[in-house]
Amino acid sequence: MPGLQMAAWIAAGLVGLFLLLWIGNWCAKHRGRVGERMVAAQLRRFARKHGGKVCSNVYLPLYTGTCEIDHLLFGSFGVLVVETKHVGGEISGNGSQLRQVLGSKTHQLYNPQLQNKTHVDNVRHHLRKAGLERIPVQGLVVFSNPRAVLHTQAGIPLSRLQDTLCRLPDARQPWKQAYAALRAVQVRNPLRQLWHDWKPHRKKR
Predict the structure, then answer these.
(1) CB of 136 within 8 A of CB of 112?
(2) Contact, 204 vs 86, CB < 8 A?
(3) Please, which pLDDT band fits residue 158 given cuts at 50, 70 and 90?
(4) Which three-class secondary structure state does DSSP give residue 169?
(5) Mind listing the pLDDT tens digit for each residue in 84-112?
(6) Fewer Cβ atoms within 10 A, N terminus or C terminus of the chain?
(7) What is the pTM (predicted TM-score) of this model?
(8) Torsion of CA 94, 114, 199, 101, to 10 degrees
(9) How far apart are CA 60 and CA 184, in angstroms?
């Protein structure tokens, strides 16, 4: 009987820990999701008009873990890997660390282009494994907060997104094959997704 009680306490503790992690993760990600929804709407608008497909919040295998990609846009140009940053203030610099000025406070912001490069390389890796290495893969960073003032080449404001998408070259690529290949390897296990979002070394928005 004591053994059963101990097992019940351990099980209850694990369930409680999972719920705490889930709630904490939801609160932390909610702010970023606002910007991601704004960008997703623009991407879907482009895909409907020009033909294509949009996938958002995609988890792909990366070594022994996962990487989360905000958006994948598929079209005749190939694949566009989109990273969203919903931060405000004045953003400047082009090195590994950008400078963010909010009122009287200054912060360091990890360059999202470097973060997105990992995502682009990962997408290319999975397409190469599927025999689709000739499909072009490009990256784009979008600052979705209208209060952001950009003095950097690290990304574009949301207001320029449609024009940027229209300038993508038509490479006449079989994007549906790329879409199917990446969907096939997508990580859907919620526990693995939760671990990716919670792990301490993850770079926050």
Answers:
(1) no
(2) no
(3) very high
(4) coil
(5) 999 999 999 999 999 999 989 999 999 99
(6) N
(7) 0.80
(8) 20
(9) 10
